[in-house]
Amino acid sequence: MRLSHEENLPKGDMVAGGKYEFFVVNVRSGELKGTVSWNNEVSINVNGLKPGSISQKQVFSPKGGIPDTWQWSEKGRSYQLNAYGDDRLAAVVISDYGISVIVTSTSPDSWKW
């Protein structure tokens, strides 16, 4: 996994295929507006997403050699975090300070808060 902020770093091969999903977490002090997109291919409408809540999941299809970029339309911010074989789920976290992405192989249903 490689991290960057608004860079286009190369991505290596992906070994596994399967279903990949992402969702948005709002940790801002107010409701969200706009959309959150992956590679300008699939988006989640986050208009009205309240603080402390999450969106529905959206399927995306990462591929080896193509960097994974996440963008929030409201602020024009983007973030690159490459998903690989076992990274089945991506949480796109939007705060008052910007956007970040966390990838995991586990489901939120198994997370303990």
Describe what you observe in this structure.
The protein is mainly beta. Strand 6 and strand 7 form a beta hairpin. The two termini are 25 Å apart. The strands form two sheets. It has a five-stranded antiparallel beta sheet with strand order 1-7-6-3-4, with no helix packed on it. The chain has a four-stranded mixed beta sheet with strand order 5-2-8-9, with no helix packed on it. The chain contains no helices and nine strands. It has one domain: Immunoglobulin-like.
Question: In terms of topology, how is this protein built?
Answer:
Blueprint: E1 3-4, E2 20-26, E3 35-38, E4 42-45, E5 58-60, E6 69-72, E7 77-81, E8 89-95, E9 98-104
Parallel strand pairs: 2-8
Antiparallel strand pairs: 1-7, 2-5, 3-4, 3-6, 6-7, 8-9
